[in-house]
Amino acid sequence: MTRDTVLLDVDGTLIDSTYHCAIAWAKAFETCGMQPPLWRIHRAIGMGGDQLVEHVTDERVEDEHGDALREAWEDAYRPMLEEVRAFDGVRELVDLLHERGMRVALATSSNSEFADRALETIGMRADDFDSLTTSSDADASKPEPDILASALEKAGGTGALLVGDSTWDIEAARRLGAPCVAVRTGGFGVDELTEAGAVLVVDAVGDLLDADWDELLHTDPH
């Protein structure tokens, strides 16, 4: 398959927001009288809110409180945005991939408000990318592949490789038929990212400036 598009996850991959997201979810659950362990919440970060609530709790909680919890999460996360920082090397990686003739697309489970703030955090604009896909562009978030498929289509690409930070990213890429390069900045370990199917694991996105992109783009998903 010809892979002409690199899809970039955002939270935990381009910006250091994973633990902010987890704490915001803990605060959201507290508004409904629930206190799931923070480690369990962290392990679900990478899913979108439409998937996370039931995964962390159960179907009843999703049915009865899902919408309220997602709204409470937004309210809890919004004040934390000033604390979120970009990882080094994001712009340089995007420029490198474009220079190699690749399309580069953002694929995030966040809504458009938080996607726009992420762009501000990395010091880039939407038109620096070939497409930007958010939760509103797909029926279901990761680990379903909908957001990735939408990002690829909007970018005009024919095949993709994903850069992400969680096992949920890897699973979504696998369902799309795409390989996934994983970064450790989401808090998942090398072994579990590798076992989940990552074709390469690096510490952070800046390390991909020295990656062998010719090899990666011709690697089949594991």
Question: Can you offer a commentary on this structure?
Answer:
It comes from Actinomyces radicidentis. Pfam families: Hydrolase (PF00702). GO terms for molecular function: phosphoglycolate phosphatase activity. With 222 residues, the chain is an alpha/beta fold. The protein folds into 2 domains: 146 residues, Rossmann fold, CATH 3.40.50.1000; 66 residues. Helix content is 45%, strand content 11%. It has 10 helices and 6 strands; from the N terminus they run βαααααβαβαβαβαβα. It has a 6-stranded parallel beta sheet. Helix 6 links the parallel strand 2 and strand 3. The longest helix is centred in the first third of the chain and has 19 residues. The radius of gyration is 16 Å and the shape is globular. The mean pLDDT is 96.
Structure, briefly:
The protein has ten helices and six strands. The protein is an alpha/beta fold and 222 residues long.
